[in-house]
Amino acid sequence: MKDQRLDRLAEIFLTHSLSLEKGDGFLLSASVEALPLVKAILSLSGRLRVFPVIELVDEEASRLRTSLLDPSDEDARSFLDASVRWDMVRWQDLKGRISIRGVGNDSEMGGVPADRMRFVADRMRPVQDLVINQRKWVVFDWPTKGMAQKAGMPYDAFFDYVMAVSDLDYARLEADESILAGYMAQADRVRIEGPGTDISFSIRGMPVVCCCGRRNVPDGEVYTAPVTGTAEGRITYNVPTTFWGRTFRNMCLEFCQGAVIKASCDGDADALACILDTDAGARRIGEFSFGVNNAIREPIGNILFDEKIGGSFHLTPGSAYERADNGNRSAIHWDLVCVQRSEHGGGRIWLDSLLVREDGRFLPGDLQGLNP
Q: What pTM did the predictor assign?
């Protein structure tokens, strides 16, 4: 029996996220597990007269391929350089990308040496920069049994949960987010305080972006970027994070003149240092964002969902987005999340002298639409 919710997701991707027009070509990169959604997208593509280039992806195959790419191997370097050239030619004629990931085992890449992960990320950066900054794109994570297990939910219940938090009234969300964006656009200093956290930075003059289903599904965040060199203080993240196949908990970063000078975590400290040493930009912040999707309440170990948690924020080491560009460039963009609702320890965020959010709830009257 066909699930009509997949048709709804296909409609969001093609008409809202990518806003494709008749004759447009786009890349559909999808996990082999997500074939039911791929078929729904293909069906709607036929009615809209848009044309996908299809890439089916498997986690284990991706790990095996990445393991082949030794940074000390001249042939591997030449191959990746050629891959970039091929992709840059292809992207001349593609309007956007739909990425449907299927995370069955988020530790699958853990067996790949960190230097190879860093090597591939660095070599492929021109393509990533082009797609992220010059094309329309949207990311969705197909609900897998591995994700359900990590979230502590039966698979059927988890599938229903993913569908529910993804199909939002994005027009209404955008209207509410735009009010918060107005506060942020007028602010100079941001100060964040909470357990293990007291950090401040400037966002003066930086663009502010409302996220409402045009880049991520599910969505619900309002982001900008710190002025380079202004971050001072310490931040402790209370949401576990997985990056390059390794999981880190209770990560704490200390900043001086905008750069991480000390980092600790419960996990592989050497791997953390390796990630932060990817390049100079990996130790600076490329994004600051409020999470405002109140259908998402608790971490499930998947950043696409966790960074949108109502009452959260994320402060991201790595590359800035072109739409809110502070000039920071890096091969990584690592969204690290802290939930500030009272049951998670609470916390406060000021925009200049205005206490804008306390214990995860916005205080100004015209921001009440962003509270549960």
A: 0.84
